[in-house]
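Our consortium's second objective concerns turning raw sequence data into structural hypotheses that experimental partners can test. To show how far this objective has progressed, the report includes one record in full. It was chosen at random from the queue rather than selected for favorable results. The single chain below, 450 residues long, was entered without modification.
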Amino acid sequence: MSSIVDISLSPTVNSIKPSRSVAIADQALALIQAGVPIIKLSTGEPDFDTPAEIAEAGIKAIREGQTRYTQNPGTLELREAICRKLKGENGITYTSDQILVSNGAKQSIVQATIAVCSPGDENSLDFFRGFSREKALRNGGSVVTVRIHPVSVSCSRNRRVLVPAPFWVSYPEIARLANAKPVILSTRIEDNFLLDPKVLESKLTEKSRLLVICSPCNPTGSVYPKKLLEEIAQIVSRHPRLLVLSDEIYEHIIYAPAVHTSFASLPGMWERTLTINGFSKCFAMTGWRLGYLAGPKHFVAACGKLQSQFTSCASNIAQKAGVAALGLGHAGGEPVATMVKAFKERRDFLARSFGELEGVKISEPQGAFYLFLDVSFYYGTEAEDFGRIEDSESFCRYLLDKAQVAAVPGSAFGDDKGFRISYASSLTSLQAAFESIKKALLLLKRPAQV
């Protein structure tokens, strides 16, 4: 006996695109499993093992039976360690109830975006009417007074999330998940892919709710100088409803003379900044799934409510490992410094090598472990047994087919002129990948030459 089943899905889910970086990594893995010698430069994950001290802390937690639930926001031990880290390294002061530990920084970003961007209703009006025109927020040991602006229903619907491009693939989709509208802010390779404050100001409206800043940046490796962040902060301060989500997950992977600045440390920005960080990238702990949000208590508490219904606490074992990671020393101590030294050597090789190729534009990364290359010069070219290169998607398919190198097309990051490669691979692999790409580019000809 058969029955009719409604297989329709939520319009919100239907509006979300799957992660292109994950899809390409899966495609490359399938080819590798089939015996094709693919060089994977598509994955944003360090190729180093988790430092031994961190791993041992996790093993010890298991052996000592620390395998049960923790408090929803995370163990007090870890949250206090995060507070010490943020004060000592970033110059921002928080208390333990202003920290929310999650299952990876991505969860922190999703929860923060939903908490501040989802469509409002009459309940949101009641929430704001419950406050006086001014409210005291506690910034660590000091009290900051901010003005509360009641929000109308029409203004709270279709809130906008401003995202500089090239962007991490998930930012716009997370905005859509929160029923917000992503607004893409273009940057230029000539400006090192840094946001022009004038572009930001031109895109702001009363519906603008969240500005996303990722520094060091995935996918470009750009690092925002303090002076530029201060210019952006001045603009933000003139828009009462605008908050800033500062994604600082790559903060320790940075190359001198670049210096990392936390947006919340700038004057007047603590009370409107949601700082995202974690352990995956800098401590080679991607599989441990451990990240955190730091911000004003009322925002963090709202995210905590979401987490209590989504996943509850992060892994107890991972949290013990996180405490050990923060105990390695300033900026991760020697283990992280060793990784950064290797990343810099790889960065230097790739920037020098690709910089010598005809038609390839680069902006030398100042942080993270990515290189975003402008190869639009090759669009319109053709190769035998492949066809025409039309865009970044076809370019990356060509690399996979002819160079056996897996990379991510720029279209996934909001900039179709180029593609991203990750140099979280051995220098030997990167050298082989470069030679393969170089040979593949030499095969490309203009239609009249084919």
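The partners drew two points from this record. The first strand starts at residue 39 and ends at 40. Residues 388 and 394 are 8 Å apart (CA to CA). Both points have been shared with the crystallography group to help prioritize constructs.
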